[in-house]
Amino acid sequence: MLDRTDGTEVFADHRELLFSVVYNLLGGVADTEDVLQDTWLAWAARCAGGEPIENPRAYLVRIAVNTALARQSAVSRRRETYVGPWLPEPVVTEPSDDPAVRVEAVSMALLVVLETLSPLERAVFVLHEVFGYPHAEIAAILDRTPPAVRQLARRARAHVQSRRPRFAPDRRLQRAVTERFLAAALGGDLAALLDLLAPDVTMWTDGGGKAKGAALRPVTGRDKVARMISGVAARRAPADLEIRYRTVNGDPSAVLFDHDAPFAVMVIDLTAAGDQVAGIYAVTNPDKLSHLDDQD
C-alpha cells in the first residue's frame, strides 16, 4: 500500500509523462492541468483506499487518458465559437535527442493535423505512434478490444500520413530559415520573403479575436501570405519587438516580446526538401501567451 507521501512522489515522477500525453490529446495547457488535477485526485483516493497498485504508471496513464477523453466534448464546444483559426497553445520545450519523438510528439504542424482526428483515433495515434504503447496496452487503457484499436490505428495513421508525410527536418536549417523569415518579414523585404515561401504555403494566425491583424481563416498561396505578412508588419507590429529563439512544441521557433511581454509565437514548418517554408503558425492570442513568461 502507498501512503500519501509515497503516492505524491510517484505522481510527481510521472507528471511529465502525463502532461505530455494529455497535452497531445487536448492541445491546451489549462485543459491539461485540469485533467492532471483530476488524475491526482483519483490517484490520491486510490492510495488512501489501501488497494495495491501493481503498475502505477499504467494506472495513471489510463486515468489521465480517459479523463482527457471525457473532457474532449467540452473542449470541442468551446472551439466551435472560437474566433478565427484555433492553434494549440505553444509550449516551450527542451529539444529531444530522438528526432522521431521530437517531431511527432509535440510539433505544432502535427497537432494541427491531429485536430482533424476523432478523439479515439487521436488517443490511439498519440499512445502508439508518439509514446510507443503496443495495441494491447492501448486496448486496456481505452477499454476496447485489440482488433478495434488496430483498426483505429490504421485509420489514424493513414489520415495523418496523407496530410503530413513523416520526415525529420534538420534543426539547424529550421532555425536558419526561421531567422531569415523574420528578418524579411519585419524588415519589409518582400523579394526575400517571396523567395522563402513555397508556392502553396499556408499561414495560420491564432488571435482568438483579441489580437489585431489575425486572419479569420488560414491564408494559402505565396503571394497572399507575403502580402498579409508585409501588411501586418508595416501597420501593426510594434517597432521594438525583441526576438528570442526558443524550442517551441519541439521545433526551433521564435518568441516575440514587446517590452518583456509575450507578443507572438512564430513556428515555421519546412517543405520535405527543407528549402522553403510550407507552413507558418502564428499565435498572438494573449491568453495563450501569458504562461510563456514563466517558461522563458
Question: How would the blueprint of this fold be written?
Answer:
Blueprint: H1 4-26, H2 29-49, H3 56-80, H4 99-106, H5 108-114, H6 119-130, H7 135-142, H8 146-163, H9 171-187, H10 190-196, E1 197-206, E2 219-220, H11 222-235, E3 242-248, E4 251-258, E5 261-270, E6 277-283, H12 292-295
Parallel strand pairs: 1-6
Antiparallel strand pairs: 1-2, 3-4, 4-5, 5-6
Q: Give me the oligomer status.
A: single chain
Shape: globular
Question: Main β-sheet, in a few words?
Answer: 6 strands, mixed
| Average pLDDT rating | 89
Helix content: 55-70%
Question: Would you mind describing this structure in some detail?
Answer:
By secondary structure, the chain is α+β, with helices and mostly antiparallel strands. It is 55% helix and 15% strand. It has 12 helices and 6 strands. The chain has a 6-stranded mixed β-sheet. α2 runs antiparallel to α3.
Describe what is shown at a glance.
The chain has helices at residues 4-26, 29-49, 56-80, 99-106, 108-114, 119-130, 135-142, 146-163, 171-187, 190-196, 222-235, 292-295, and strands at residues 197-206, 219-220, 242-248, 251-258, 261-270, 277-283. It is α+β, with helices and mostly antiparallel strands and 296 residues long.
